[in-house]
Known about the structure:
Blueprint: H1 2-6, H2 12-24, E1 42-43, E2 49-53, H3 61-64, H4 72-84, E3 104-108, H5 121-137, E4 143-147, H6 149-161, E5 178-180, E6 185-189, H7 194-197, H8 204-218
Parallel strand pairs: 2-3, 2-4, 4-6
Antiparallel strand pairs: 1-3, 5-6
Amino acid sequence: MNERVVACAKCPRLVEWRSAVAREKRAAYATEAYWGRPVPSFGDPDAEVVIVGLAPGAHGSNRTGRMFTGDRSGVWLFRALHRAGFANQPEGSTADDGLRLSRAYITASVRCAPPENRPTATERDQCRPYLEKELEIFRSAPVVVALGGFAFDEVLRILQRRGEAVPRPRPKFSHGVEVDLGSRTVLGCYHPSQQNTFTGRLTESMFDAIWERAKRLTAP
């Protein structure tokens, strides 16, 4: 499935944008070769926690080719996952830096970097089959952590369409919200974006609490 993701060219605006960013580059990364394609998911194939983000960052995973790698959001995420025992190291800077996830898998609602981090509804819908397939592959994973309202709404929309026991009306996103579907729980979490971490809307203790809750929900 990741091979199909990397070869995807469904959304002309995103193809143009991701490619332009990869050509022009940011000055700090001028000597680096950018990935500049849809970003594949990664993690433990036996994951118990599926982590769903929004979309690749233009100079983060659009540059490195690995989800949440190469930007400040990833710094927060990998550090927290390491503290919780879901990652073997607290840092991830390149796709071949030795970072491995344990019992966790990272994906996103949209696989190409969008302008201003804002995919359109059409782009979201075009990318949805990939996330649908992953949620089916990991149907036995007891926890899905949705980073941000966009991912939270998309996960619940997919699971509702699959016939899972999503309450109606669908729950609204908030930090720490839990949606018990019987076979699995969806946890809502503020996205570790600079907008949230620099302003204190998301603190490390708040973030750690999400991963500790995920651990408790996966405990035998």
